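Example 138, ligand zinc ion.
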Amino acid sequence: MSLPFQISVATLEREVLVDITGQVQEALKHFAPGLSGLVHVYVPHTTAAVTINEGADPAVKRDLVEGLARLAPRNAAYRHTEGNADAHIKASLLGNSVTIPVVDGILHLGTWQSLYLAEFDGPRTRKVWLTPIPRLRA
Ligand code: ZN
């Protein structure tokens, strides 16, 4: 059995995007040195997500958090009584995995892209599972 590689991410606020690009890149160096292909990045949680968006202007991640809060307000009427229904909705909107091209061990992201763990019910320590997918050679 070959389990995914796991990294941990501590989130410090209830709702926050944490840039994990460097942490995933570093993990790849150890777990899959020289990989060319893809890495599947998966969050095994129901109130957190992963997403790729602009990393240059920190205002963008605040706008994402605030924009999602307008779509799913924390104090609206929900059936789920745990108090985090908004977090479940936000996590589903962003999704729990992304797949990123990797070239010679380096994440092949666009110039302005960063990889984020999106926390919607923190602070907590979250798991991120990484599955390297080597490119097939004909
Ligand atoms: Zn819940």
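Summary: Residues 80, 82, 84, 88 surround zinc ion (CB under 6 Å).
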